[in-house]
Amino acid sequence: MTIGIDKIAFYTPKYVLDLIELAKVRGDEPEKYTIGIGQDKQSVVPNYEDIVTMGANAASKIIDDTDRQLIDSVILATESGIDNSKSGAIYIQRLLNLSEFTRTIELKQACYAGTYGLMQARDYVAAHPGRRVLVIASDIARYGLATPGEVTQGAGAIAMIISDNPKIASINTDSVYMSAERADFWRPLDRTQALVDGHLSTDIYKEMFLTLWQRYCTKTQQTISDFSGFAFHLPYTKMGKKALDEVLDQATAEQQVNLMEKLKASQQLSRQVGNIYTGSVYLSLLSLLSYSDKLQSGEKIAIFSYGSGAEAELYSITLQENFTEYVPRKSVKQLLEGRQKLSVSEYEAVFNSQLFDSHVNVKSEAVSGVTQFQFLGWQNGERVYA
Ligand code: COA
C-alpha cells in the first residue's frame, strides 16, 4: 500500500517585514542578511494570530467533507504552544468542525516534531487502510528585537493530510534518525523568547546530517544519484547550502548543477517567510514542488529534518503521478504577494503587542469581516477563538 502526502497547504500572517530595511536600522550590511544568511523578508504575527489560528487557517484550505469523515487524528507539532497542559490540536479540531470521535495531540521536540507526526500518521494509515490523519506544523520563531537571531524570525503553518493512495508523494519506509542531548537552542517555560547558540546549532545540524546521510546510504544501498533533490530544514536559507555542501562532491558535475538548482527552488518560500520551526522543512518541500519545473513523477526527494536539542531524521519521498496538479503553487504565491508591508517601527510595535499575560481579560486586535480564524483575547485565563 502506498501511503503519503495527499494534500498540503501553507498559511502565514498578513504582515511582512523587509529585511534590507531592518539591516539598515540595526546597523548591519544588508548583504549579510540577504546573502550571508539568505533571508529577504519575514512574516510578522499580529496579536490576533497564534499557532492555533495559523494551523487552522492552513488546514481549512484543504479539508473537505470526505476528509471530515475519514480523519481519525489531528497531530499538531509546535514549539510555540499556547498552553502547558491542553493541546492546541483540540482547539483546531473544534475550529475545523471535525468529529468529536477524533484523536488530538500536540508534539514537541523543537523543529523536528512535525516529522515525528508525519511518521506516526503514516504508520496509523498503514494499520488502518482508508483512514486519514491531519498533521499540522505551526510555529512562531521569536528571538527578540535587535538580537542575532532576529533576522531569522518568521511565522506560519503547514498542514498535510496523510492517506493511502496519496496524490502528491509517498513517504518511503527508509528513515534513519538520531537523538543526542545538546544545548544549541531551548526555551524555558517562563520565557517567551528562545535561547540560542546559532553557530553551535549550525555545527550540530551539519554533523547530524552527515552522520545520518552515511547511515542512510549504508542502510538503503543508495547514493546521491538516486535523488532528484533535497528538502532541508531551513532555520535560514543558507543552512540548506551548508548542508548540501557536506555531500555535494559525491555527485557528478551534471548532478551537482541539478541539485543546486533544486536547492534554490526549495529556498524560495523560506527566503520570504523566515523560519517556521516545525513547518520549516515542509515549507522547503512545498517550495521545491512549487518553484522547480524539472521534477518528474517517480523521482525521489530526500528530506532532512532537524530539531535543536537535538534530534534529526533523514528519509525519502517519491513523487506521484500528476503530483503537480495538487501542489497549491498559485495560491501560495498569491498569499505572499498579498501581504502588507510594515516599517521597522511598525514591526517593533506589533512584536511588543503580543498578549502573553493570561491574568488580564483583554481583547486582541482581531478584525471583523474576515473568514480566517482569529485569537480574540483572554477571558478568565482562557484563550478565546473564533
Ligand atoms: N555580505 C555577505 N555575507 C556576509 C556579510 C556581507 N556583508 N557579512 C557577514 N556575512 C556572512 C558571514 O560570513 C556568515 O556566513 P557563513 O555562515 O557562511 O560563514 C553569515 O553572513 C552570518 O554571519 P555571522 O557573523 O555568522 O552572523 P551572526 O553571528 O549574526 O549569526 C545566525 C547568524 C544565523 C547564526 C543567527 O542569526 C542565529 O543564531 N539565528 C538563529 C538560527 C538558529 O540557530 N535557529 C535554530 C536552529 S534550527
From TrEMBL:
The keyword Membrane is annotated on this UniProt entry: no
EC nos: 2.3.3.10
Domain of life of the source: Bacteria
Span of domain Hydroxymethylglutaryl-coenzyme A synthase N-terminal: 3-164
Keyword terms of this UniProt record: Acyltransferase, Transferase
Residue sites binding (3S)-3-hydroxy-3-methylglutaryl-CoA per the record: 143, 242, 275
Name of the protein in question: Hydroxymethylglutaryl-CoA synthase
Biological process annotations from GO: acetyl-CoA metabolic process
Record-linked SUPFAM superfamilies: Thiolase-like (SSF53901)
Domain Hydroxymethylglutaryl-coenzyme A synthase C-terminal: 259-352
Protein family membership: Belongs to the thiolase-like superfamily. HMG-CoA synthase family.
Entry's Gene Ontology molecular function annotations: hydroxymethylglutaryl-CoA synthase activity
Classification via CDD domains: init_cond_enzymes
First-tier enzyme category under EC: transferase
Catalytic residues (UniProt): 79, 111, 233
